[in-house]
Amino acid sequence: MTEQTHQIRLHVNGVEHEAAVPARRLLSDALRHDLGLTGTHVGCEHGVCGACTVLVDGQPMRSCLMFAVSAAGHEITTVEGLARPDGELGPVQQAFRECHGLQCGFCTPGFLTTITAGIAENPDPTEDEARDMVAGNLCRCTGYQNIVKAVCRAAELARSGEDGAA
């Protein structure tokens, strides 16, 4: 028996996409498999690790916990949407590069989206606030020191406009 699909429109990274998905298709799977946006990584599939975090209407959301049909009508930003329109790195991406905030890179997309939302809410975090900001994301490679440094540096870049963003 063929599973019934639903025709949905997803607004991802400023572009509208149409997809036919089963009702139980996770947003993470729709992004990766239906839209070809493979930057969103799937780790634990239980919402614990944070690797699949995307922004839904500017708020961090575990895409492995949200159905794609529920995302219709919302603005979704994946890691691919964090770069500037000219392709240059956004402030969080730039800070991760400068501060060596990644190693294997598997968890990085979730950190980048989480931090982007965190800095929008708190544009001048202390080191403790930066640590709290990323506390819900797991990394098996780093000791989080450079990730915390990257949060503070990203906030600095965003405030000063050094990343070129308006």
Automatic annotation (TrEMBL):
This entry's Gene Ontology molecular function terms read: 2 iron, 2 sulfur cluster binding; anaerobic carbon-monoxide dehydrogenase activity; metal ion binding
Q: Which UniProt keywords apply?
A: 2Fe-2S, Iron, Iron-sulfur, Metal-binding, Oxidoreductase
Copy the pathway line from the protein's UniProt record. Answer: Alkaloid degradation; nicotine degradation
List, alphabetically, the CDD domains matched: fer2
**What top-level branch of life does the organism fall under?**
Bacteria
What Enzyme Commission number(s) appear in the record? 1.2.7.4
Q: Which residues form the 2Fe-2S ferredoxin-type domain?
A: 6-82
Q: Which SUPFAM superfamilies match?
A: 2Fe-2S ferredoxin-like (SSF54292), CO dehydrogenase ISP C-domain like (SSF47741)
**InterPro entries xref list:** 2Fe-2S-bd, 2Fe-2S-bd_dom_sf, 2Fe-2S_ferredoxin-like_sf, 2Fe-2S_ferredoxin-type, 2Fe2S_fd_BS, Beta-grasp_dom_sf, Diverse_Oxidoreductases
What is the uppermost EC class here?
oxidoreductase
Record's protein name:
Carbon-monoxide dehydrogenase small subunit
**Species of the source:** Nocardioides kongjuensis
